[in-house]
Amino acid sequence: MPTAVVWDPALLSYRFNATHPMDPVRLKLTERLCREFGIFEDPQVSLITPGIASDETLRTIHDPAYIEAVRAGSSRGEASTEHGLGTEDTPVFPELHEGAARIAEGTLRCADALLEGAAVHAVNFAGGMHHASRAKAGGFCVYNDAALAIHRLLEPGPGRTGARRILYLDVDAHHGDGTQSIFYDDPRVMTVSLHQTGTTLFPGTGFPNETGGGGPVGAEGTAVNIALPPGTGDAGWLRAFHAVVPQLVQAFEPEAIVSQHGCDSHMSDPLSDLQLSVDAQRQMALDVSHLAEEHTENRWIATGGGGYAVHDVVPRAWTHLTAVAAGSPLRAHTEVPQAWRDYVRTACEVEAPQTMGDDAALWWRSWELGYDPSDAVDRAVMQTRKEIFPLYGLDPWYD
């Protein structure tokens, strides 16, 4: 199916410093692995070369004073604690504004591709900057590209009306706090985040009782958080996803899905305490694609996000994501091309995996089989269902 994929080597300029965990080599290796599998050469795949988002465009989501602070950090090296810039997580560097604005433009171009009918699926694996809020950077994120794309989809334009409802789905190990905060009072956007509980992981938010703005805005129930315990693996994660997400997608009736596929939930990732496999992350991509097929006439924008096992996990997870979006999923036991493994050994001085999966036996217990109050994952799921499901006429126990 027609799929747009964002890529330009200039995206590699978004690099905080030589020791920062968000090493852009993860993007370079993903792009190279996609090419080894011929994904970019598929006649249904078109490549988007992003420019740099204008300040006017960025202001549709971000505060003007914040954009100026980012520019000052780039041009003069000025830190701004008020705006989350110059911290250990998000240090300033000369290409900060241009690099972040290029990532933002990439996901905006994905939205344009859907709006223009040039594609039904679109991928920006350099995107997914979900910790950036309206006026503050955080967690390595400066401009919230997904939020900008959602705004583009919602707004009417020449010859078209804006979308009525958009689903934002975040499966990063960390809570998608920035995106949630931007749309917390907007009933047109449902933000759903599965993540390690904020009691044990940055940013310390994303609890089930964060349900969206109430009162006159009528957005209660449009923020959905499944806060999972440390150590959650494939079976628990997939059980939680299927116990909450498909039911709410059906109830909310979105016209497009924008998803964030941070792969730092992997068992090898140094920045979380989850235990997922690449196989489960591949399954997440397949499940989101299926939801788009069932509910949004296939309209789906997928972004990257976190992921700090940069040589072995990230390239495989996001190559799977891109292949799924392109309609040509790779099997988890597919052999990694030897040419790519040789490149990783030479360029990065590490050994790359031999297959595209972790040989995981994916299985999860359906929620319909019953709730186990002694299971920490089940308790987390039940908290979310009790908060959200009644607002949509869904029985929190059985439906």
UniProtKB/TrEMBL annotation:
A GO BP annotation: epigenetic regulation of gene expression
PANTHER family: HISTONE DEACETYLASE HDAC1, HISTONE DEACETYLASE HDAC1-RELATED
Family: Belongs to the histone deacetylase family.
Positions of the Histone deacetylase domain: 20-324
Keyword Flavoprotein: no
Pathway assigned to this chain's UniProt record: Ketone degradation; acetoin degradation
Name of the protein this chain belongs to: Acetoin utilization protein AcuC
Sorted UniProt keywords: Acetoin catabolism
Entry GO MF terms: histone deacetylase activity
Coiled-coil blocks: none
